[in-house]
UniProtKB/TrEMBL annotation:
Name of the protein described by the UniProt record: GTPase Der
Binding partners and assembly: Associates with the 50S ribosomal subunit.
Role description: GTPase that plays an essential role in the late steps of ribosome biogenesis.
Source organism of the structure: Aromatoleum evansii (Azoarcus evansii)
UniProt-annotated binding residues for GTP 1: 9-16, 56-60, 119-122
Gene3D superfamilies xrefs: 3.30.300.20, P-loop containing nucleotide triphosphate hydrolases
UniProt KW keywords: GTP-binding, Hydrolase, Nucleotide-binding, Repeat, Ribosome biogenesis
């Protein structure tokens, strides 16, 4: 499981600058999609070989408005409660302020490791920029420059040193697809889980060993194995699973990261909200296979059905790689079809793409439409091979490939997906330019 780093600090110390710095590599993997808006408070990042989730508590810092530290906004409090590591940012140019001291007092009670990060330290003597902040009693201050990127790798290595590297769960003994059922509060996730598990054989159901573990519920359906990764803090009461915790963006992100196939649940009786779009954005960034279940279809009339279909097209157009199902979790209608799509999305995500066919497909695409010249450069693509699964990655070798525009990358993605009939999974293109082997690597 990826550790969660939560950024805390008074306004203007550079939290969002650090957040952007910590999540940049991941964002760059996904070509900008029309309509995609990212939630700039929650992200997935990687520095060196360390993966993590990062949360910026900016925007819901209530201190300026309320003036009282112990009235921190609920969301910031929830993020602090769910953090593995807290980064407390202060401003090395402004020096120590009373507001910093109040936040420090709160964080000391958080029961989480806190690291004191002194930002805006570029061009300054380490010992001088840090001097003030020893008084906070939070250990040695760590000077960085979020804007320039100084000290960031050392920071991540240090704060995550005690967490095990995230390893892919082994695919041992054919446990089948790992599924995460996600969606904003009240869309019907628990109802869908119960409809799925109600009559099925739940093979073994262990409570997690530690609070950091997610709950995995293995079950069997029509002779096939699945594992449900819990997002909602599900607990079993008798035969029924119910949510015991309030909605958590962090848990949602964790579950998306740990699964193979996401089932995104939307509520047809409500409008598509920003929260739906943000969750959809996380799913796109993650590269996971996806099935969309538009729930409560039983409760809406034809007019509303038409409306919601159009709203989905408009706001979630970037999910068009996925199959959509219009279901009633309450009545069990459409649930079997959702599971069929889960199977085919999983198969597509795990597909094996032979090199000769990939290269032939690439050549056909180039013949149909060559990549545009960019200044002095004409990108040259020579051959392709598969670089990974879930999502399938196609690695293309050639020259001047850093000059390929996002629109052409999307054209290539579509071409490969159609050629190999991949449905339900995104596909990623990575470029390797011969004279610079690092371009396109993550
Ligand atoms: N010199 C310098 N300026 C920085 C650095 N990081 C951020 N800044 C500047 O500090 C200001 C505040 O940065 P933000 O990232 O918006 O700060 P924040 O903590 O997210 O602020 P809120 O959104 O108000 O909570 C901006 O003008 C940044 O350009 C840095 O490393 N060095
Ligand atoms: N009409 C109708 N109502 C549904 C359907 N599915 C769920 N509901 C109702 O929607 C409400 C919310 O359902 P839950 O399953 O608790 O939703 P959830 O997404 O798990 O909610 P949280 O636990 O808050 O995350 C309940 O009152 C359900 O009975 C459906 O298919 N049709």
């Amino acid at each position: 499981m990826k550790p969660t780093i939560v950024l805390v600090g008074r306004p203007n110390v550079g939290k969002s600058t650090l957040f952007n710095r910590l999540t940049r590599t991941r964002d760059a993997l996904v070509a900008d999609q029309p309509g995609l808006t990212r939630d700039r408070h929650y992200g997935i990042g990687r520095v060196g070989d360390r993966d993590y989730l990062v949360v910026d508590t900016a925007g819901f810092d209530p201190v300026a408005k309320a003036g009282i530290m112990h009235e921190m906004a609920r969301q910031a409090e929830q993020a602090i409660a769910e953090a593995d590591v807290l980064l407390f940012l202060v401003d090395g140019r402004a020096g120590l302020t009373p507001h910093d001291e109040q936040i420090a007092a709160r964080l000391r009670r958080a029961g989480r490791p806190v690291h004191l990060v002194v930002n805006k330290a570029e061009g300054m003597e380490r010992s001088i920029v840090s001097a003030d902040f020893h008084a906070l009693g939070l250990g040695a201050p760590l000077p960085v420059s979020a804007a320039h990127g100084d000290g960031i790798k050392q920071l991540v290595d240090l704060v995550l040193a005690d967490f095990p590297l995230d390893e892919e769960p082994e695919e041992a003994e054919d446990r089948g697809p790992r599924i995460a059922i996600v969606g904003r509060p009240n869309v019907g996730k628990s109802t869908l889980v119960n409809s799925l598990l109600g009559e099925e054989r739940v093979i073994a159901f262990d409570m997690p060993g530690t609070t950091r573990d997610a709950i995995a519920i293995p079950f069997e359906r029509e002779g096939r194995n699945y594992t449900l990764i819990d997002t909602a803090g599900l607990r079993r009461r008798g035969k029924i699973f119910e949510a015991i915790e309030k909605f958590s963006v962090i848990k949602t992100l964790q579950a998306i990261e740990q699964c193979n196939v996401v089932v995104l649940v939307l509520d047809a009786s409500q409008d598509i909200s920003d929260q739906d779009a943000h969750i959809a954005g996380f799913i796109l960034d993650s590269g996971r296979a996806l099935v969309v279940a538009v729930n409560k279809w039983d409760s809406v009339d034809d007019y509303r059905r038409e409306l919601i279909k159009r709203a989905i097209e408009h706001k979630l157009g970037f999910l068009s790689f996925a199959r959509f199902h219009y279901i009633s979790a309450l009545k069990g209608a459409g649930v079997a079809a959702v599971m069929k799509s889960v199977d085919s999305a999983y198969a597509a995500a795990m597909v094996n793409l032979p090199t000769p066919r990939l290269t032939r497909t690439l050549q056909a695409a180039l013949a149909k439409q060559a990549p545009p010249r960019s200044g002095m450069f004409r990108p040259k693509m020579r051959y392709a091979h598969q670089g990974g699964n879930n999502p399938p990655v196609v690695v293309i070798h050639g020259a001047a490939l850093d000059q390929v525009p996002a629109s052409y990358v999307r054209f290539l993605e579509r071409t490969f997906m159609e050629a190999f009939k991949l449905q339900g999974t995104p596909l990623r293109i990575q470029f390797r330019t011969s004279h610079n082997p690092y371009i396109g690597k993550d």
